[in-house]
Amino acid sequence: MIINEALPDKDECTGSLRNVLDALSVLNGKWKIALILSLVQSSKRFNEIQHELKGISPKVLAKELKDLELNDFVKRCVYPTTPVSIIYEATDYSRTLKSLIGELSAWGEQHREKVKQSMRKQS
């Protein structure tokens, strides 16, 4: 806790809340940020993504990829081969999330034990 730091006023809180809700509206869900991180590392086929993200069902993966594509975070590239090849890749827009993903990663590492305990309680 930081002592002597002024609390934000009502307008700042309202603006921050609106901004957070806007971000969460396009990044909500268990898999979206993980998908973006996976594709920022390298472009992948559907099965490669599913293999990398253990636990995601094909139905959920297809929906999440479609949502990310609609919001310009992911690009779906179709190659006219036999059979057709579809490759998913991160867009430059998704790379704007680099610092956010870094902060989430750092927070997750710092609070890993507490998160694990909480998850055990929910099971």
UniProtKB/TrEMBL annotation:
**SUPFAM superfamilies for this protein:** Winged helix' DNA-binding domain
**Is 4Fe-4S given among the entry's keywords?**
no
Which controlled-vocabulary keywords does the entry list?
DNA-binding, Transcription, Transcription regulation
UniProt domain HTH hxlR-type: residue ranges: 13-116
Keyword field contains Transcription? yes
GO-annotated molecular function: DNA binding
A Pfam family matched in the record: HxlR
Question: What is the official name of this protein in its record?
Answer: Transcriptional regulator, HxlR family
Organism from which the protein derives: Pedobacter westerhofensis
